[in-house]
Amino acid sequence: MLQPMTEILKNAKKGGYAIAQPDFLNITMAAMYLEAARRLKAPIILGYGEEYIANSEAKNLKHLVKIIESLVEEYNIPVTLHLDHGQSFEICSKAIDAGFNSVMFDGSSLPFEENVAITKKVVEIAKPAGVSVEAELGYVGTADDINDDSKLTDPKMAKNFVKETNVDALAVSIGTVHGQYKGKPNIRLDLLSEINESVDIPLVLHGASGTGHEIIAECVKRGICKVNIYTDLVNVMEGSLRNDMKNFNSDLVSVTNNIRESVIQELETYIKTLGSENMI
C-alpha cells in the first residue's frame, strides 16, 4: 500500500534501522524492487526522478502514479512513491498534484537563504496534502566534482534549516558521491554524528553505491534512516546482461529473468545491511 514517507521513516528512526530507496526508470525496475522488499518483509521507498518520464512507459506523472498504485496493490508491504531530486518548486508541485506521497526539493546548489525559502514553499503545499518532504543541505555531487569541506553539511546550519523549513527528512553531505567513486571513499562518520545530535528528524544518505556495506551500517547507527541506491543496481543489471551475451544466451526469457534475480539479490543485500528486514 502507498503511504507517506513520514510514517515509514518515523518507525525506522525509532527502531534504529533504515529504509532502502532504489530509483527506478521504468515499471519493470519498480516491480523488481517491490519483489525484493516483499521477500524480506521490508518497507520500501520507490524513488523517481523527473527526467525519467520518457523511459517509464507512463504518459505523464499522473499516469505513472496510477500504474504504481495498481502495481503496489499486489504487494502487502508499506511503499512510498517519492520524487527524487526535484529541482524546482514547480516540479514538486506537479508531483504532489499527480499523487506522489513524498517529494524531495533539492536546493543543495543554492545559497542557504534561497534553499530555505523554496523548501518552505514546498512544505506549505505538501503538508495539507499529506505529502512528506525531503530536502538537502550541503552538496552531494559526483566524483568528478571538486570536493571540499564547504560542500559538507554544517551541523549548526542543519539545525537552523530544519527549524525554519519544518521538513520531514534531511539529506546530508558527509563525503558520499552520486555514481561511481574514484578512489577510496572518505566518509565523515564523525560529522554525521554531529548532525544527528543537532536535528531530531530522519537523515538521508545519497550516494550509497560503492560506499561499502560496513560503512553504510555504521551510518544507520549514527542516524541515517533512508538510503538512496541506484548505481549498484544498474551495475548488476549490466553485469547480468554481459554474462549472458558472453555465454551466447539468446533466450530473452532467461536473460530477463537473470537480470531480475540479480537486481533482487543486490537489493536484498542492501535491505539486510540497513536492518529493515522483517520490519512490517
TrEMBL record:
Residue positions binding Zn(2+) 2: 106, 136
Zinc listed as a keyword: yes
Keyword Repressor in annotation: no
SUPFAM superfamilies: Aldolase
Domain of life: Bacteria
PROSITE patterns named in the record: ALDOLASE_CLASS_II_1 (PS00602)
Keywords: Metal-binding, Zinc
Binding positions for dihydroxyacetone phosphate per the UniProt entry: 179, 207-209, 228-231
Cofactor note: Binds 2 Zn(2+) ions per subunit. One is catalytic and the other provides a structural contribution.
Residues involved in Zn(2+) 1 binding: 85, 178, 206
Stated name of the protein: Class II fructose-bisphosphate aldolase
Organism, as annotated: Anaerosalibacter massiliensis
Upper taxonomic lineage: Bacteria, Bacillati, Bacillota, Tissierellia, Tissierellales
